Amino acid sequence: MSKTLAEKIWAEHVVRAAAGEPDLLYIDLHLIHEVTSPQAFDGLRLAGRSVRRPDLTIATEDHNVPTQNIDKPIADPVSKLQVDTLRANCAEFGVRIHSLGDKDQGVVHVVGPQLGLTQPGMTIVCGDSHTSTHGAFGALAFGIGTSEVEHVLATQTLPLARPKTMAINVEGSLKPGVTSKDIILAIIAKIGTGGGQGYVIEYRGSAIRNLSMESRMTVCNMSIEAGARAGLIAPDQTTFDYIAGKPHAPEDFQAAVAYWKTLFTDSDAKFDVEVNLNADELEPFVTWGTNPAQGAALNSTVPNPADIEDEEARGAAERALVYMGLEAGMPLKKIAIDTVFLGSCTNGRIEDLRAAAEVVKGKTIASTLRMLVVPGSARVRLEAEDEGLDKVFIDAGAEWRNAGCSMCLGMNPDQLAVGERSASTSNRNFEGRQGKGGRTHLVSPLVAAATALRGTLSSPADL
Amino acid sequence: MDKFIKHTGSAVPLRRSNVDTDQIIPAVYLKRVTRSGFEDGLFAAWRNDPEFVLNNPAYKAATILVAGVDFGTGSSREHAVWALQNYGFKVVISSRFADIFRGNSLKGGLLTVIIAQPDVEAIWFAIEADPTTKVTVDLESRTVSYRDVVLPFAIDDYTRWRLMEGLDDIGLTIKNSGSIDAFEKSRAAYKPATLPIRG
């Protein structure tokens, strides 16, 4: 029977199927961090259980770690307790960990791919909703809660109901200055925060195939912002080339590639839903509201809630404009920014830093704002320093930080103050996400860099 | 996990859509290493507003939250479920839940009930008109009822059975560890492992 890519991967991982029960799915890789794991390890201890497959498990410290003074003890005692707890749990249960100061420490979704542990056809989970990032390799990857983290630690499996499948076809070619971030923001604005709920999304079409691996990760990363637990892209030569030479690339690379080449949606397979997007028409895209679907082309204006037909969406837009301190009809490019954040599992990879550095090189950021550059991992930071990107950012007036989730979610000291407005390359513009009372506009690395120079939301074309 | 068969209590209307898990519990409250004590962080930003519905004394005893569409979007943090439970909620009713939040809630014994939006609005009107209105959620008959209204809701047989028996998934899966052993024997050699450490 013909199958979609997601259905193929699913079928290959079913340990047990029984009528009226969820399938029991085998998990190939389990990523762990300090925030969603302590209660899971505690559960194992209480039940006298061990970690079934430490060799398929890896931990790092990312969510609440500081990005400055990392050679000193963590100042926040509660963050320190969480990090210390992770280290103790990993030591007790034999789990590999990359701690602060290690070259493979960093945002968990940057670390997996850079080590070559993320490969096509795998099932990958993590107690973090942005696990969908790994779908860029043609893996079925999704976020789980802490009870499920405990379940995977104990059994290396998860009981799961089979999801429906959605194809998002993006055909055409992107204009200069338009990035994969703009693609995914436009998709979310089109289908809404609940549009992908219950589905695994497969991103397809020429515009997707032409993206680099890192750009594909940006697209898959934000699948959850459209409500989809997982988003994936069929592996191809771009994928194979990216994995080749990574520390954990398969030793028998040819055997792996032979299998990876079977990972595509059969031509006569049917998706439950298909959505089409024309890449030719896309523009740099930014959000104006407090959920990731409240976005618009940078060249447009803050929408007028009165024009929104759906009562629920209208109410949400009205509330969002009050929270964001914006007036309907205002050009988005007139919005003045206080902080630019370049980083996160969405846009904290080397390619993102290179793109932004290219824009700010030899220039100075606006005196009215600060810019934080937070590499996604220590390895990305080292690579950037080798290329001199740190100097480019520092010379422009930006702050060059150590790796972590940082201001994406403001669990560490990197936070917005009340009323402070950011242009952020992260993934969520929820109320208070980057700090209590903070206001977030989601943008691409190119828009972040141009905004840093001009002080108002801008694209490189405005320079 | 406690068995869930039937719950009767008063209910609080949360007339907001897209309530993401950062609103349910902001990240700064996620630093505990236990499963308890998260009630302080529940809707922390909104609770500063005296007008926020949870600050209304009339709803102080409520054990059922009736929320707008797309409840629980965003971050996978199970702390959102714990915060609701630690605060005293037994049930959340909405016309649509985000997948991860719903999975987390049903694993942890917080019953999430999906009913149509007009029915959600009808409950809102009833509990706003009279905050002492008792709402009953009966998992056995799969119904929500209040006054003379009875609303059926759907939940799959397996999850319902598991909640009614108060069983946790890990124990159930370990009964099938023979299938896991057999599966592992068939895994391809080129699949990556985190140990031994390379590079």
From TrEMBL, chain A:
One of its GO terms (biological process) is L-leucine biosynthetic process. It catalyses: (2R,3S)-3-isopropylmalate = (2S)-2-isopropylmalate. The keyword Lyase applies. InterPro entries: 3-IsopropMal_deHydase_lsu, Acnase/IPM_dHydase_lsu_aba_1/3, Acoase/IPM_deHydtase_lsu_aba, Aconitase_4Fe-4S_BS, Aconitase_4Fe-4S_dom, IPM_dehydratase_rel_enz, IPMI_cat. Its cofactor is [4Fe-4S] cluster. Residues 7-455 form the Aconitase/3-isopropylmalate dehydratase large subunit alpha/beta/alpha domain. Its EC number is 4.2.1.33. Pfam families: Aconitase. Pathway: Amino-acid biosynthesis; L-leucine biosynthesis; L-leucine from 3-methyl-2-oxobutanoate: step 2/4. GO terms for molecular function: 3-isopropylmalate dehydratase activity; 4 iron, 4 sulfur cluster binding; metal ion binding. Keywords: 4Fe-4S, Amino-acid biosynthesis, Branched-chain amino acid biosynthesis, Iron, Iron-sulfur, Leucine biosynthesis, Lyase, Metal-binding. Catalyzes the isomerization between 2-isopropylmalate and 3-isopropylmalate, via the formation of 2-isopropylmaleate. Belongs to the aconitase/IPM isomerase family. This is 3-isopropylmalate dehydratase. It comes from freshwater metagenome.
TrEMBL record, chain B:
Its EC number is 4.2.1.33. The keyword Cytoplasm does not apply. It catalyses: (2R,3S)-3-isopropylmalate = (2S)-2-isopropylmalate. Keywords: Amino-acid biosynthesis, Branched-chain amino acid biosynthesis, Leucine biosynthesis, Lyase. This is 3-isopropylmalate dehydratase. Pathway: Amino-acid biosynthesis; L-leucine biosynthesis; L-leucine from 3-methyl-2-oxobutanoate: step 2/4. InterPro entries: 3-IsopropMal_deHydase_ssu, Aconitase/3IPM_dehydase_swvl, AconitaseA/IPMdHydase_ssu_swvl, IPMI_Swivel, LeuD. Residues 1-117 form the Aconitase A/isopropylmalate dehydratase small subunit swivel domain. Coiled coil: none annotated. It comes from freshwater metagenome.
